[in-house]
Amino acid sequence: MTTNGGSEPVIRRTPVFCTIVPPHILDHLATHEDQALADSALRTLQHDSAQRTRRRVTAVRTATAAVAAPAPATAQPHRTIYDAEHRTDLPGTEVRAEGAEPGQDATVNRAYAGLGATFDLYLKAYERDSIDGNGLPLNASVHYDVNYDNAFWNGDQMVFGDGDGEIFTDFTSSVDVIGHELTHGVTQYTANLEYYGQSGALNESVSDVFGSLIKQYSLGQSADQADWLIGEGLLAPGVHGVALRSMKAPGTAYDDPRLGKDPQPATMQHYVKTSRDNGGVHINSGIPNHAFYLLATALGGNAWERAGQIWYDVLTGGELHSDATFVDFAKLTVAAAKARYQAGEESEAALKAWSQVGVQAS
Which of 179, 239, 248, 313 has a CB 3.0–4.6 Å from the CB of 235, allowing a cystine? Predict the structure, then answer.
């Protein structure tokens, strides 16, 4: 720990390596009798494991979440898209800069649009200027590796694989996937939730929440109109499933012999205790995901407004500890609802939502 020249301590931490496809799906695929399918999954798993091991770039954050000044209404994104040309050297060759017209590569155009949609939600709904709150340039590399079955935020930029074409399609195909991964960056610059156990599941859940909100905002959907799916359109034709996760009904997103069955619980009654996947961060995130869905649909209207504002206030408010539990987070959402909306329906709805998933928030 060092200081930043003042009285506040500065903690240097390694940003987590976060992928959209959880290891349990790739583990299942890696044992498939179709050797080509198994090889793609195994190579993706090996790559992701190596990337987690190699993370050495550190982030600087204060002991409490940094408070970013409200962004000016005129703030603009600074996007750059690169083509990795099926290699793993990042970032690759620049193919589209901010303000450039769309090109012939649909993957490049979708990545550019997805970065913009994420920037827009954070700016217009929460007055946040990019991922760090201070205009951080948004960089992304597409066409990463060969048959790479994932997308990730590496602490500095977005990276998208093309998928194998049989199980997964192009990873730029779902705007909520782009929003999910970039939100790991927001968490990195704010609460910096540890990527293990319940705090890790909260880290994943926060990304699912805002990934879904980015999709809803870009489509102009109300909470009742939204599908509440993460990665809808990412599964190739013939796969028995609709998405990677469902916030509305955790555990129902897919059931396919090649992928296995969606293991996410919706309540604490079925909380999964495991040492895999950093303590089940992609599995138990279904519980806070479902709590947010219940809150958003109970309040109605646009989910990024009251429900999303409460979650954003907790993430950026400075009281969310990096090792927070579900109970810690739940109590802070109720307090944030009371602080912003006084004794209105918001805090009662938050209490009820957490109670419905078995988390004590009072």
Answer: 239
Specify the DSSP element, H or E, that contains 124.
Answer: helix 106-126
pLDDT beyond 70 at 86: yes
Task: Tell me which of 24, 32, 180, 282 is the catalytic residue.
Answer: 282
Tell me, yes or no, if 232 is annotated catalytic. no
- Burial status of residue 133 (CB atoms within 10 A of its CB: 0-12, 13-18, 19 or more): buried
Number of residues in the chain: 362
Sheet containing 79-83: give its strands across: 18-19, 151-153, 158-160, 138-142, 79-83, 93-97
Place of tokens 């009281």: 319
Instruction: Give the pLDDT mean for 177-203.
Output: 95
Catalytic residue among 24, 32, 166, 181: 181
Q: In terms of Cα–Cα distance, which of 40, 14, 19 is closest to 159?
A: 19
**Other beta carbons within 10 Å of 327:** 14
Catalytic residue flag (residue 181): yes
CA angle 123, 81, 102 (to 5 degrees): 85
Find the distance separating the first CA and the last CA of the chain, reported in whole Å. Answer: 34
Q: What is the pTM of this model?
A: 0.91
Structure tokens at 155: 């602490």
CB-based contact 237:256 (threshold 8 Å): no
pLDDT band at 7 (very low <50, low <70, confident <90, very high): very low
